[in-house]
Design a protein that fits this description.
The complex is a heterodimer. Chain A is mainly α. Chain A has a domain of 107 residues. Chain A has 18 helices and 12 strands. Chain A is flat. In chain B, the strands form 7 sheets. Chain B has a 4-stranded antiparallel β-sheet, with no helix packed on it. A 4-stranded antiparallel β-sheet of chain B has the order 2-3-4-5, with no helix packed on it. In chain B, strands 6-7-8-9 form a 4-stranded antiparallel β-sheet, with no helix packed on it. By secondary structure, chain B is mainly beta. In chain B, a hairpin with a 4-residue loop joins strand 15 and strand 16. The chains are: A mainly alpha, B mainly beta.
Chain lengths: 427, 297
């Protein structure tokens, strides 16, 4: 008995705590405001007269329509801006709980972060679903480049001009990337029937009905016929699929005739021969996927059939160094522009780190004329006092990828950099 | 009452697993010894890419000079033993020392493994029996050679006479394997540079499995590894310029050394080896030297 008493005495406290937590977590209810009879729906509009205009819009948020302002706002005081009764990034999902399916393959960043008002007006709108703008115009306010490209493309994909939502979900996709309603090819074959003669003819009789359509086609429109990506592998453009694949009528028509780098050697023999004569190769070339580690075999958005823009591609493996480079306050221009291959040879090189020149000074010199630099001596005759086997070169002071310090120096120029070597001057 | 509390505390202490204090005590520290800068003729090393130890010999692939430099290692110290360049190995990038004192050297240009006597006599190329893209190699105590063939992708094993003794496929869900090492139990450890993950093929097991949690946030781009006599794993972080110390179960314990020029600092380190006791050798590539460290606990 003596032991149970303290526990029992906690019960009322816990009930009060629960009630208070529930109030803190979600928006307020109309009852909580204890409004005078007849005040609901009219009291707030007395001051907030612009809302009367909103009320006349074709689409009005249900709580607004019902005069339940205190569903979202606290009439007296709040911890959030606009007297919101809960965190603005969470308040919508207290009612709209099923916006994001759990374990979604892709999510719209604004939906995932609760920035609902970037697309929706919380009070009312002329557009269905309280959208800030109608149709694609809303999407293209952020995805401006895509909108301009789609509008200007000589070869258009009709659903793009109809509605982005033909292919994409607005908030999340349960099992596809890029908010697609379904994965390719299931999404595409909804309209483009793979068993139709016209489809088979367009694909030279190859059974591509189960392949990823976006490996060749740009779904948003293109400058090329058949909305092929901007950069097309010549055998694809020339409809010579059998150059790499088995014959279309064969049992394994999509199988490539040769594996790995041998598949590309037939046309790119000189480049491959030269690459394998270097002292160092970029190792992905030597594995089973070989060239396809970085290049797409059919068509690509990026030049040289790269699977991604260069820096994004390099970051697939060298994530750490790209992250450091791109988040540094001082960035090396080629890194900022995503041109890793300006300094590193992507296939092979005779130099360490696959540098495109024999040494770092020679490499830097291709852009920076160091004779005009400063008077600090550098070169093979200038010993580095920190290490008797190294000489003073550009990298003695500068970090090539990015740095917290101006001029990409390793250390703060004013204090630490110089005295790292000139220790007599250390204070 | 006090007596009861003391009794409970004593019982708790007695019930502690005996391994716990031992694990705490087994944390490794690396102490820096004088580095190796030159060969026996005081010619400086240049971009040394690989180091290996065996038969009291430290072998260094002095890649920038296109030669091999050797040092004799004894409890008293490390002395330059010899150096040689061979036309058959113009660009040595990996090295191993057999129990008999021969050197196995991977040439970057021809991508073939050469067998060389310790004083430089070329004994021929190893016949791998099939095309292979050799990224790294390791020798076990019994003299078996393990070749990391990223083209396979697989580990090829050869007996001490050089005859094929098996192969193990590399897991398809890994990033890119850069190096492997074999411990005294015959377990093969691999480092996945891209996935930042350690893997292991236990002796006699058919599969290669993950060892420990991933190392994201702990290392930037690990490219080489060595196993100490206590089973700890030393991981060279090439881009991060440091050495990560992992426990025998692959759990990250510590990170030592940092980017820099002076001894005890690393720039683009590319390989690591131990002498089977407490000495550790690191190919400190951009610093043109081999750093020597000693393990203390």
């Amino acid at each position: 008995m003596r032991r149970r008493l303290p526990l029992l005495s906690l019960v009322p406290f816990l009930i009060l705590l629960g009630a208070s937590a529930a109030r803190a977590a979600g928006p307020a209810t109309a009852d909580r405001a204890h409004l005078k009879p007849g005040a609901k729906g009219t009291l707030c509009l007395g001051c907030h007269q612009q809302l009367q205009e909103t009320m006349r819009l074709p689409f009005v948020h249900t709580p607004v329509k019902n005069g339940d302002c205190s569903d979202c706002h606290d009439p007296h005081a709040a911890s959030h801006g606009k007297l919101l009764a809960a965190d603005p990034d969470r308040i919508c999902t207290t009612c709209h709980t099923a916006i994001l399916p759990s374990g979604a393959k892709s999510e719209h960043p604004d939906a995932a972060s609760g920035k609902c008002t970037r697309c929706h007006d919380p009070h009312g709108s002329a557009n269905k679903n309280l959208l800030l703008a109608a149709g694609n115009a809303l999407c293209f306010t952020c995805h401006k480049d895509l909108g301009e490209k789609a509008a200007g493309a000589p070869h258009k994909h009709p659903p793009v001009s109809q509605s982005c939502l033909t292919c994409h979900a607005a908030h999340a996709s349960a099992d596809a990337d890029f908010l697609l309603a379904k994965r390719s090819p299931a999404l595409c074959t909804g309209c483009h029937k793979a068993d139709q003669p016209v489809f088979r003819k367009a694909h030279m009789g190859y059974p591509v009905g189960s392949s990823d359509c976006s490996s060749c086609h740009d779904p948003h429109g293109s400058s090329r016929p058949a909305i092929l990506w901007a950069s097309v592998h010549p055998p694809v453009a020339g409809r010579n699929c059998a150059q790499c694949h088995e014959e279309p009528g064969s049992p394994n028509a999509l199988k490539v005739r040769k594996q790995g780098v041998d598949s590309c050697r037939g046309c790119h023999s000189e480049m491959i021969r030269t690459t394998f004569e270097f002292n160092r190769i970029h190792w992905p070339i030597a594995d089973r996927k070989a060239c396809l580690n970085c290049h797409r075999p059919h068509a690509s958005k990026a030049g040289k059939l790269l699977a991604d823009p260069e820096i994004k591609l390099c970051a697939r493996c060298h994530a750490g160094i790209v992250q450091q480079a791109r988040t540094s306050p001082a960035q090396h221009k080629p890194v900022a522009e995503g041109a890793c291959s300006l300094c590193h040879a992507p296939h092979g090189s005779n130099s360490v780190l696959l540098l495109t020149a024999a040494d770092s000074t020679a490499l830097c010199e291709t852009c920076h004329s160091w004779e005009k630099h400063s008077s600090h001596p550098i070169g093979p005759d200038v010993a580095d006092p920190r290490n008797r086997n190294t000489r003073v070169d550009c990298l003695s002071c500068h970090d090539t990828h990015g740095s917290p310090h101006k001029y990409l120096t390793w250390l703060d120029k004013k204090m630490d950099l110089c005295v790292a070597c000139h220790q007599d001057f250390r204070r | 009452m006090i007596r009861r509390v003391l009794l409970v505390l004593t019982a708790v202490l007695l019930l502690q697993p005996s391994g716990a204090p031992a694990r705490a005590a087994s944390r490794l520290k690396l102490r820096v010894l004088p580095a190796l800068y030159t060969d026996s003729r005081e010619r400086p090393l240049s971009e040394p890419e690989a180091v290996a130890f065996g038969a009291s010999l430290l072998a260094v692939a002095d890649t920038g000079n296109g030669r091999i430099v050797t040092y004799s290692v004894s409890p008293e110290g490390i002395e330059p033993a010899g150096e040689f360049a061979l036309p058959e190995i113009p660009y040595p990038v990996q090295i191993g020392v057999t129990s008999g004192g021969d050197l196995l050297v991977l040439d970057g240009r021809s991508r073939r493994i050469a067998r060389v006597g310790r004083t430089g006599e070329f004994k021929g190329y190893l016949d791998l029996g099939r095309p292979a893209a050799v990224r790294a190699m390791a020798l076990d105590r019994a003299g078996h050679l393990y070749v990391l063939d990223v083209g396979g992708p697989r580990i090829l094993t050869f007996d001490p006479a050089g005859k094929p003794a098996g192969e193990t496929s590399l897991p398809a869900d890994a990033g890119f394997f850069s190096d492997l090492a074999v411990d005294t139990n015959g377990d093969t450890f691999l480092v996945d540079s891209v996935g930042r993950q350690l893997w292991v093929a236990r002796a006699g097991a058919a599969d290669i499995v993950r060892l420990g949690p991933g190392l994201e946030g702990k290392v930037e781009f690990p490219t080489s590894l060595a196993v100490t006599r206590t089973g700890h794993i030393l991981l060279v972080d090439q881009n991060g310029g440091g050495i990560a110390i992992l426990g025998p179960t692959g759990v990250f314990e510590d990170r030592q050394l940092a980017k820099g020029w002076r001894e005890g600092f690393l720039r683009d380190p590319s390989d690591i080896a131990t002498d089977g006791e407490d000495r550790v050798f690191v190919a400190d590539r951009a610093n043109n030297r081999v750093q020597v460290l000693v393990i203390s606990q």
